[in-house]
């Protein structure tokens, strides 16, 4: 009999982008004359505990004492935290809805602000384990419940021992208290979550480093909002490229490598290329870059890239014909938009197609030689697999056809195999 999977998720700097007590301090001490010095002390206590250099209990006691917070401050904090949910958790809200019985939030933070935030994601209140504040009659926070095991050093281990859960337990978090669950043998695997902060002392102890929740879902073959984690998409930046251009790509989650030349070790695995003005891409390199999907050129690509070969290979090219300074960001944005939505608007070699993202659907891209009858074959495949099409777009040029199909039904991998086998197919990919 298969054991049930249980997902134990941290809150601060994991489910949310920030440390909630640090944020609460910035609210409650907003008018305090020594606020910056106090903020620094609170952040230091947080980091020392997260890195395992200070007991959690001591860290928590010191932070709560410095807060000078009230219930009104908590209300402001909750509003702020709802806007600070980590992007990869936010876009995978459907996962939490479908797996509500298997998801636990286990945190050294406080229920008073955690519950209103995670409850939006269908996480059950009885599955939220955290500390609780002690307040006075007029709403001042003066202490916390010291009898709660989560207020102590090794609190997550103590709690999980008490719960004695049966099944395959997986832990996701950014701090030392999350790793302690693995060290104790109570969980099967520990995933170091690094979307918001990467602590070297924790990363090196993890079973797997997950730069996003998409990555966790992907490696565990669980349903997710995007088909392939962005951290696995290799974006190679070549030459003297402005840091602003690189920062945009990095912010969107792609795995960035910045090199002075197109090194041989990257040719077979690169998905995206951003080239500085003057850089060249040889036909041999292009032909062997079988995973390449898009090229951004920060200048005029004429005589630097074989556009015809790119088109035949299904590679979308965006370049800067007029050397416009704004294209430092414009070109990377076009690459990002293509990778995220399939939009080819203003590309140099592909049919011009501008697409919105359609929620609660899957988007499939089929690039093929422009010969008669391909769309009929594509739709025959969908019909054979009982796929309901909610939107379909086709644009062509003399060389290729570019078809986008949005479907709202579940599918199996045999559908992909069938679409790839259609004669004259150049490339096929699932966006989300």
From TrEMBL:
Keyword Amino-acid biosynthesis: yes
Pfam families given in the database record: 2-Hacid_dh (PF00389), ACT_AHAS_ss (PF22629), HAD (PF12710)
Catalyses which reaction(s): (R)-2-hydroxyglutarate + NAD(+) = 2-oxoglutarate + NADH + H(+); O-phospho-L-serine + H2O = L-serine + phosphate; O-phospho-D-serine + H2O = D-serine + phosphate
Cofactor dependence: Mg(2+)
E.C. number(s) listed in UniProt: 1.1.1.399, 3.1.3.3
This protein's UniProt keywords: Amino-acid biosynthesis, Hydrolase, Magnesium, Metal-binding, Serine biosynthesis
InterPro entries: ACT-like_dom_sf, ACT_dom, AHAS_small-like_ACT, D-isomer_2_OHA_DH_cat_dom, HAD-like_SerB, HAD-like_sf, HAD_sf
Domain (ACT): residue spans on this chain: 363-432
PROSITE patterns associated with the record: ACT
Pathway: Amino-acid biosynthesis; L-serine biosynthesis; L-serine from 3-phospho-D-glycerate: step 3/3
Function as written in the Swiss-Prot or TrEMBL entry: Catalyzes the reversible oxidation of 3-phospho-D-glycerate to 3-phosphonooxypyruvate, the first step of the phosphorylated L-serine biosynthesis pathway. Also catalyzes the reversible oxidation of 2-hydroxyglutarate to 2-oxoglutarate.
Protein name, per record: D-3-phosphoglycerate dehydrogenase
Protein's organism: Pedobacter gandavensis
Organism ancestry: Bacteria, Pseudomonadati, Bacteroidota, Sphingobacteriia, Sphingobacteriales
């Amino acid at each position: 009999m298969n054991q049930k999977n249980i997902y134990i998720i941290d809150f601060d700097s994991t489910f949310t982008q920030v440390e909630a007590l640090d944020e609460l301090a910035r609210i409650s001490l907003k008018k305090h004359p020594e606020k910056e010095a106090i903020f620094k002390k609170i952040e230091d206590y947080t980091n020392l505990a997260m890195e395992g250099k200070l007991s959690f209990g001591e860290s928590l006691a010191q932070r709560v004492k410095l807060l000078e917070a009230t219930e009104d401050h908590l209300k402001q904090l909750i509003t702020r935290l709802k806007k600070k949910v980590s992007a990869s958790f936010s876009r995978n809200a459907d996962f939490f809805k479908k797996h509500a019985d298997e998801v636990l939030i286990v945190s050294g933070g406080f229920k008073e602000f955690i519950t209103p935030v995670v409850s939006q994601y269908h996480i059950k209140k009885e599955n939220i384990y955290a500390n609780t504040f002690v307040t006075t009659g007029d709403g001042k926070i003066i202490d916390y419940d010291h009898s709660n095991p989560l207020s102590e050093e090794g609190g997550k281990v103590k709690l999980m021992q008490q719960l004695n859960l049966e099944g395959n337990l997986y832990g996701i978090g950014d701090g030392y208290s999350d790793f302690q669950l693995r060290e104790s043998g109570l969980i099967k695997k520990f995933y170091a979550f690094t979307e918001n902060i990467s602590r070297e002392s924790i990363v090196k102890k993890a079973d797997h480093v997950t730069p996003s929740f998409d990555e966790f879902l992907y490696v565990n073959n669980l349903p997710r909002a995007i088909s392939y984690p962005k951290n696995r998409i290799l974006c190679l930046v070549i030459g003297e490229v402005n840091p602003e251009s690189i920062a945009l790509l990095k912010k969107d989650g792609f795995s960035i490598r910045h090199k002075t030349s197109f090194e041989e070790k990257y040719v077979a695995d690169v998905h995206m290329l951003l080239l500085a003005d003057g850089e060249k891409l040889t036909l041999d390199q292009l032909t062997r870059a079988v995973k390449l999907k898009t090229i951004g050129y920060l200048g005029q690509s004429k005589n630097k890239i074989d556009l015809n070969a790119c088109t035949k290979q299904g590679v979308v090219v965006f370049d800067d014909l007029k050397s416009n300074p704004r294209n430092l960001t414009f070109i990377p944005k076009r690459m990002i938009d293509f990778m995220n939505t399939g939009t080819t608007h203003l590309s140099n070699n592909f049919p011009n197609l501008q697409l919105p993202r359609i929620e609660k659907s899957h988007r499939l891209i089929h690039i093929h030689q422009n010969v008669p009858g391909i769309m009929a074959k594509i739709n025959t495949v969908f019909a054979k697999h009982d796929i309901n099409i909610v939107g379909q777009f086709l644009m062509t040029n003399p060389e290729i056809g570019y078809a986008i199909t949005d479907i709202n039904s579940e599918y199996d991998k045999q559908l992909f195999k069938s679409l790839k086998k259609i004669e004259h197919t150049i490339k096929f990919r699932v966006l989300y």
